[in-house]
Amino acid sequence: MTTKLFGTKVNRVEDQRFLRGRGRYVDDVLPGPTLHAAVLRSPHAHARIRAIDVDAVLDIEGVHAVWTYDDLTGAMAEPLPLLIPHPTLTHGRTQYALAKDEVNYVGEAIAFVVAEDRYVAEDALSAIVVDYEFLPPVVGIAAARAATNLVHDDVPGNVGARMEQENGDARAAIAAAPHTLTLDLDIERSACMPMEGRGTVARWDPDSARLQVWTSTQTSTGVRAAVAAKLGLDLGQVDVITPDVGGGFGVKINHPWPEELLVPLAARTLGRPVKFTEDRREHFISSAHERAQVQHIEVGYDDEGRILGLDVEFWHDHGAYTPYGLIVPIITSTQLLGPYKPANYRVVFESLYTNTVMVTPYRGAGRPQGCYAMERTMDAIAKDLGKDRTEVRAVNFIQPDEFPYEHGLVFQDGRPLTYDSGDYPASLEKIKKLVGWDEFEQFRAEMAAEGRRVGIGLACYVEGTGVGPYEGAHVHIETSGKVKVATGLTTQGQGHATAFAQIVADELGVRFEDVEVVTGDTRRMPYAVGTFASRAAVMSGSAIHLAAKRAKEKALRIAADALEASVEDLELAEGKVTVRGTDTSIDLGTVAVLSNPLRYAFDEASKAATQFSVGDPGKPPVAEDDEPGLEGKDFYSPERSTFASGMHAVIVETDPLTAEIRILKYAVVHDCGHLINPMIVEGQIHGGVAQGVGGALYERMAYDESGQLLNASFMDFLMPYASEVPESIDIDHLETPSPLNPLGIKGAGEAGVIPSAAVFAAAIEDAEGFPITAMPISPSELFALRKRHAPVVEEVAQRPSRNSSVEEPRDEASRNHPTRSTDR
Fold first, then answer.
1. Rounded (5°) CA angle 337-312-415
2. DSSP letter at 612?
């Protein structure tokens, strides 16, 4: 029998190619003569364009063309699409492919030059003269809320959207609660840094009037539709191929980027292939950022810490434009609830314009901010009541027998926020054991005896995954017995070629090595959505499973005729269809030959001696409800998202002198339903934790008041090295299968990064004894906080520790802290 592969740690088939430098990225395609493009970007955060002079550019040897907005016509001259409209996004704005009249952030595209090579194209940019009228920039949430200046003249108060949801009466419940507190929290702007930046190559074939585009994207089909619409082409005239992608993390789900339209435009206009490859500075100043929010929380609770009312207001910085709508703040507002069930919940947010790079989803996509708000609230409640932090969480958990659990809210997909499955109490017990929660006080005492300061933190999260509307798959069994699988979403390091092959090999009973998976090629799968929101395994995995079942059903039907047996008596294994209990079998490749009435005698096993098969003279060679070939095609469209969950815990040491933060232990318990490949899931967790460490302790986008990004290079933007991430991560899995898809799976791609800010803030606060309310936090900031809270720090150093967030003395000074509590 073929070994069952689903649920086993199969080595990734992709790795050897990448490790040996044999990957093929956008910059590697079309190695022959190719024209190169460069983009003139605004050096100002806010300015009116009075004139652009490009006359000198065309005199430069090697320059082929230059475009400004005035050279664009038709749909190309219209704003880029608003991908996800929403009724509350009353003032949505998107940029043009090239700036029209005004620039609204440093890095906005103004002119596009195509030359013989990138060096000439870059040099030509300096010959373009732009006459600017400077306008006052709006930088940061505080400036946006003040609305002294406006980013867009027609957007009052810089408010792009205001959205409110409520279940119950949170304000009345808080007013009547025996205990209340308020918190003011802050998360600063950050961004993903994939190894490969954005890149696009295009080639126009005038004979076939067909355009081929290679682009580093997370949505090939989305780019295809945009290119066709903007360039006035039929959809069938455009092929978009996504080769290897060196990381996406969300920034490449936004589409189309200006260059994804301008490169094909140039290729068709000039009749030669054109290439654009983003450099690192361009990625910093002109791609997309995320995270920045200011949060105000009011909560009422009883003596056990049970939340009776939760009222959250936050302000979201969405940058200069809103191409991706309100997905990030909507996710924050709904995923904030995590595994808990507050009796009454109200949330309201404003999404604000600033003269900075636009905001689109970045791994976690609003969930880290929501988790930070909720978990900091849980810690504050525990501190106020003098309870262990795990106890307060436990009394607020949704219980296993309460699923499906309806929150009475609307999720990002426009459907009710309904959790499908989970067991949060079991996860809590696992994480406590994994991190050594109950033994920590003894460890703290031992460290204190050595003059070392340590703290422990815990954070819980729930992650909506597998968001729709659909994904499809095509499974083709070839006459060789090998299986070709195509799905439309893209891959950027997740191990799709391995995990998807495991699903197919199990379903068809073939060798894992005989399954080949292709993703992100519109020639193979013209309709798809994309790779984001931890949806690939749920969506494409389910579609591939269903398509393989269709292929299997056909294979058994054809084999039954050939073997003169009933379908019920057949089984598929080892690449053969066998009659159970006998030695009678037929190769799957032979079945593929028999599936086509028009066949040649190239395969001895097929016994096909003529060009076509005669078959039953009373029936047509191909039935009305059938088609030639041994293939299966299907689409999967879920009724709603499925919800994964998990808990992270960390023990940190804070240096008494330098305030450096060192990770001593990191533990993760994760539930993503049935695991297709546990090794791949653990790899996703490891990568997410590393990214979360960066977001919590190192990475931020630092703008000055004029809108200049001060750290637009790896000299200044700090990313964690291997020495800064945990040497090992203790991982345990819980599997509560989802009832919403045929495989019982949930997504895992973003889980590792979601609780990072919350868990590190909790651990540092536990070590230091004063509130941590803004993230990320650097050693210099921690040092400054120590000076500000010197009396509290001294008291903490002298008193016995306990396993809960350190309680501050309720004196006059404590009212200046962002956390304020009231007992009734």
1. 50
2. B
Query: Residue 613 to residues 590, 593, 597: CA-CA distances in angstroms?
Result: 14, 11, 5
Q: How far apart are CA 338 and CA 196, in angstroms?
A: 33
Cβ contacts of 643 within 8 Å, gap of 6 or more: 419, 420, 421, 422, 462, 463, 464, 465, 746
| Contact status, residue 336 vs residue 374, Cβ threshold 8 Å | yes
Please say whether the dihedral angle defined by the alpha carbons of residues 14, 18, 20 and 24, taken in this order, is positive or negative: positive
Q: pLDDT tens across 768-816, in order?
A: 999 999 999 999 999 999 999 987 556 555 544 444 443 333 333 333 3
Q: Is 279 exposed, middle or buried (0-12, 13-18, 19+ CB in 10 A)?
A: exposed
Closest CA to 638 of 485, 411, 382: 411
Q: Mean per-residue pLDDT for 51-65?
A: 96
Say whether pLDDT at 599 is over 80.
no
Is residue 312 within 8 Å of 347, Cβ to Cβ? yes
Question: Tokens 């690192």 — which residue?
Answer: 280
- Give CA separation, 54 vs 77, 670, 681, in Å: 19, 56, 52
Q: What angle do CA 295, 299, 300 make, to 5 degrees?
A: 175
pLDDT score of 614 more than 60: no
Distance CA 360, CA 328 (A): 7
SS (H, E, C) 289-306: EECCEEEEEEEEECCCCC
Q: Which two tokens stand for residue 231?
A: 């360039």
Give per-residue pLDDT as tens, 546-584.
Answer: 999 999 999 999 999 999 999 999 999 999 999 999 999
Cis status, amide bond into 368, omega within 30 of 0: no
**Residue-wise over 419-428: b if at least 16 C-beta within 10 A, else e?**
bbbbbbeebb
Q: What is the dihedral of CA 142, 148, 153, 158, to 10 degrees?
A: 20
**737 Cβ contact list (under 8 Å, min separation 6):** 421, 673, 674, 744, 745
Partner residues linked to 671 by β-bridges = 645
* Beta bridge partner(s), residue 290: 190
How many other CB atoms are found less than 10 A from the CB of residue 617?
5
User: What residue has token string 């500075």?
Assistant: 281
Using the structure block, give the residue that is written with the tokens 């302790």. 697
Would you give the DSSP letter of residue 534? T
Do residues 285 and 113 make contact, with C-beta atoms less than 8 angstroms apart? Answer: no
pLDDT tens per residue, range 119-131: 999 999 999 999 9
Q: Which neighbouring-strand residues pair with 663?
A: 652
Which of 606 and 757 is assigned the larger pLDDT? 757
The SS3 call for residue 677 is: coil
Q: If DSSP codes are grouped into helix, strand and coil, which group holds residue 403?
A: coil
**pLDDT for res 798:** 54
Residue 324 — φ and ψ, nearest 5°? Answer: -100, 15
Q: What is the crossing angle of helices 389-396 and 424-435, to 10°?
A: 160
**Beta bridge partners of residue 233, listed in sequence order:** none
Q: Which domains does the chain carry?
A: 18-135+192-286 (3.90.1170.50), 138-191+288-394 (3.30.365.10), 424-463+641-802 (3.30.365.10), 468-636 (3.30.365.10)
d(CA 433, CA 436): 5
Nearest 5 degrees, angle CA 38-CA 43-CA 44? Answer: 140
**Spatial distance between the Cα atoms of 515 and 518, rounded to a whole number of angstroms:** 10
Q: In this structure, what token pair is assigned to residue 37?
A: 């493009």
Q: Which of 422, 459, 464, 168 is nearest to 331 (CA)?
A: 464
DSSP state of 795: H
DSSP state of 152: S
